From TrEMBL, chain A:
Domain Acyl-CoA oxidase/dehydrogenase middle, residue spans: 130-224
Record's keyword terms, sorted: FAD, Flavoprotein, Oxidoreductase
Domain Acyl-CoA dehydrogenase/oxidase N-terminal: 16-126
Entry-linked PANTHER family: ACYL-COA DEHYDROGENASE, ACYL-COA DEHYDROGENASE FADE29
Name of this chain's protein: Acyl-CoA dehydrogenase
GO molecular function: flavin adenine dinucleotide binding; oxidoreductase activity, acting on the CH-CH group of donors
Family stated for the protein in its record: Belongs to the acyl-CoA dehydrogenase family.
TrEMBL record, chain B:
Source organism (scientific name): Roseicella frigidaeris
Origin superkingdom: Bacteria
Pfam short name (any one): Acyl-CoA_dh_1
Name of this chain's protein: Acyl-CoA dehydrogenase
InterPro entries: AcylCo_DH-like_C, AcylCo_DH/oxidase_C, AcylCoA_DH/ox_N, AcylCoA_DH/ox_N_sf, AcylCoA_DH/oxidase_NM_dom_sf
Keyword Oxidoreductase: yes
């Protein structure tokens, strides 16, 4: 593995796919900190800063950005290979909202001045971004958001509250969807605003989730003054921009990896509990295993579409539903066979592979985030099956 | 496979679909199917001959032996179209016999079988829900679809530690048939003492492979049927009104439709992946695992989709006049042919490698 030469970043997009995969493996083998493989929880900036900086130094930080802005300029199919290898290696997510969300949006809709100002600072790790979309009364119905920005001279004055602002305590910038026209139809009065988290009037309060982790925050805005040049794109066009950004990355919500990981742990647990050989369990396991294999096949058909240069349709929602519900069914089964061990707060026998309750809890939000599975079914029935109303 | 090869392949599969649609219109009315129901032999021999002339019976038989030499991708596409039209002709069984005669070096009535003039059914099954052919010489052979229309039977017979293949004319066996839910028949035969004419001495490996292929192709037939039943159901949801609204606007029904769509998509992905794997030449356990995955999925999904189609139609779906019920009845007959979902799950667990994680 070490024999593989890792070419300079600018050459990566030109490699043949299988060669590229080997290069990614070699890169991770050489650079990824062993202690951070498969972390049980989302890491904070203090924990994953070193990895972020390694990626930054090597020029690997922004796989999807065009080369002219300091990215790797990888095609969707190469980005999928990269993600597959990161997942296989158990690479933790970084504080990646700037890389994945804000960067592509500024590249697509920002002014030249905004590009010059913000993109380089993502690449150096000076700006760590978080996302301010959801609100207490605007979750699945995001367009109902009410945090408002009112123009006052050269500034927008922002008032309101955002919620589920992932890792907001680690971020020094936030991108917001704000209401700029209360009279328009709800989707047509929303704008996209960039806010320095050090501006007076911003309060961040962590929310402890069921994993007992403070990954999410509430973020409050009390008369926060934001220079008007921080508006991205046209006024009142924020909704369309945010929607247009939902690109091929949606496929990753349906990546079978999470279920594959859980399935292999289910087997370890079944052996530990002495039920593996039981015919009843074997049939239960076979059902999950077959669902996993067929999900992989279906996922593969979507990857093939991307490889042929096609874009994804609304039917990609199927992957998200199948994957997340399978992940839950696997962890449900773990709980079912674990006896009293199901209730343990820590992994059984101190073995991270037997993190029964932890994995069960981790599987819960999967059907909620990224558009709840109920919303995904609405999308399927209206946009794929073309059912009315 | 290179991009050019993949394109050629897709084109070949598209051509098969088109020619199938010309013979069995995928959205055509089902009058022909209804007329053939519950009357011996349960299918139209003239249609079987036409299928022979189209080259379908020998689709998998090498060209040198008079077949078309095509792959499972093509065969599954064909079966899907036949399933969409509920064609009752025993094409899958005839194709299985053709493969055995081809493996035996083109002996026996292969040419007549390929042309559809003769119908030879392979009498391999000695008990319910199995893919094993023990070849017990004196055993009664079971579950022979449309056996009343057969001109003869192929008999696998264990001699020593090998499975020989014999051919007997229909006149030499005692045949009983029982009607099935879809309007067809399942036959039981008692072989004659002399087992007829020997054709080959070692057909075991070829039969094992052919049974796997038949299981996969049956899955594809089920896929075609469930897709059409689902399409009919969506049409109904888009037009039927109750409480002053089109019922397809009700979220409970929309979500159920979304769930069925996912089952159809998983079934298609599973079958196409299996056909591609077999065409790429995977052998042994990997081959059996791929087939079992596809058949287990198709068996369960086809029954789920067709029975939910009845439910979503309401009362009209429960009438024999309305076509959606025909698809449920077909799924009831085919779901367990060449192995039930439970059998295939057991087999998958027995042969599949560990999950890669």
């Amino acid at each position: 593995m070490d024999a593989i030469r890792i070419p300079p970043p600018a050459e990566l997009d030109g490699l043949e796919d299988e060669h590229f995969r080997q290069v990614v493996r070699a890169f991770l083998h050489a650079n990824y900190p062993e202690a951070l493989r498969n972390p049980p929880k989302r890491l904070h900036w203090a924990e994953n800063k070193a990895w972020y900086m390694t990626l930054a130094e090597k020029g690997w930080l922004c796989p999807g950005w065009p080369k002219e802005y300091g990215g790797l300029g990888l095609s969707p199919s190469k980005q999928i290979i990269l993600t597959e290898e990161y997942e296989r290696h158990g690479v933790a997510r970084t504080n990646d909202h700037g890389i994945v969300m804000l960067g592509p949006l500024v590249i697509k809709y920002g002014t030249e001045a905004q590009k010059q100002r913000f993109l380089p600072k993502i690449l150096t790790g000076e700006h760590i971004w978080c996302q301010g979309y959801s609100e207490p009364n605007a979750g699945s119905d995001l367009a109902a958001l009410r945090t408002e920005a009112v123009l006052d001279g050269d500034h927008y004055v922002v008032n309101g509250q955002k919620i589920w602002t992932t890792l907001a305590m680690d971020a020094n910038w936030i991108f917001l969807l704000v209401r700029t026209d209360k009279t328009a139809k709800k989707q047509e009065g929303i704008s996209f605003l960039l806010v320095d988290m050090n501006t007076p009037g911003i309060t961040v309060r962590p929310i402890i989730n069921l994993e007992m982790h403070d990954e999410f925050c509430e973020t409050f805005f009390d008369n926060v003054r934001v220079p008007k040049e921080n508006l991205v794109g046209q006024l009142n066009k924020g909704w369309d921009m945010a929607k247009a950004l939902l690109g091929f990355e949606r496929i990753f919500l349906g990546s079978p990896r999470q279920s594959g990981y859980a399935l292999s742990r289910l087997k370890i647990l079944a052996e530990r509990m002495g039920v593996w050989e039981e015919a009843g369990f074997q049939d239960q396991y076979a059902r999950l295993r077959l669902e996993f294999e067929d999900l992989k096949a279906l996922y593969g058909t979507f990857v093939d579409r991307l490889k042929r240069g096609q874009s994804l349709g609304p039917d990609v929602s199927m992957l998200k539903i199948i994957q997340t519900e399978l992940f839950q069914k696997i962890t449900d089964t773990m709980l079912e066979i674990a006896g009293e061990n199901a209730g343990l707060l820590e992994p059984l026998d101190g073995n991270r592979d037997l993190n029964i309750g932890g994995l069960y809890i981790q599987a819960r939000p999967a059907t909620i985030y990224g558009g709840s599975n109920e919303i995904q079914r609405n999308i399927l029935s209206k946009n794929v099956l073309e059912l009315p109303g | 496979m290179s991009a050019a090869e993949a394109d050629d392949r897709a084109e070949s599969i598209r051509m098969i679909r088109d020619s199938a649609a010309a013979v069995v219109p995928p959205d055509g009315d089902l009058k022909r199917i209804r007329a053939l129901r519950f009357q011996e032999p349960g299918f139209d021999p003239a249609m079987l001959r036409q299928m022979g002339e189209m080259g379908w019976i020998g689709l998998r038989v090498p060209e040198a032996l008079g077949g078309a030499g095509l792959g499972l991708g093509e065969m599954c596409a064909l079966a899907e179209e036949l399933g969409r039209g509920l064609a009752p002709e025993p094409l899958i069984q005839a194709a299985l016999s053709a493969q055995l005669l081809a493996a035996a070096g083109g002996k026996g009535a292969l040419a007549k079988l390929l042309s559809g003039e003769a119908l030879l059914l392979t009498a391999w099954q000695e008990r319910a829900d199995t893919l094993e052919a023990p070849g017990t010489p004196e055993a009664t052979r079971l579950f022979l679809p449309m056996a009343g229309g057969a001109t003869g039977f192929l008999l696998p017979a264990r001699i020593g530690d090998r499975l020989a293949l014999h051919e007997v004319p229909a006149s030499a066996v005692r045949l009983e048939t029982a009607p099935t839910q879809d309007g067809g028949f399942l036959g039981t035969i008692t072989p004659p003492r002399d087992l007829g004419t020997p054709l080959a001495t070692d057909i075991g490996p070829a039969l094992t492979e052919a049974l796997d292929e038949a299981a996969l192709v049956t899955a594809a037939y089920l896929l075609g049927g469930m897709e059409r039943a689902f399409a009919m159901t969506l049409d109904y949801l888009r037009t039927r009104q109750q409480f002053g609204r089109i019922i397809g606007t009700f979220q409970a029904l929309q979500h159920r439709a979304a769930d069925l769509k996912m089952q159809v998509a998983l079934t298609r992905a599973s079958i196409e992946a299996a056909a591609a794997a077999l065409d790429a030449g995977v052998r042994g356990d990997a081959r059996r695992a791929a087939v079992s995955r596809a058949k287990a999925r198709a068996a369960e999904a086809s029954l789920l989709v067709t029975r939910q189609s009845i439910q979503l139609h309401g009362g009209i779906g429960y009438t024999d006049d309305y076509d959606v019920g025909l698809f449920l009845r077909k799924a009831m007959v085919l779901a367990n042919q060449f192995g039930s979902a439970a059998l295939h799950r057991r087999r998958f667990m027995a042969v599949s490698p560990e999950v890669e994680a």
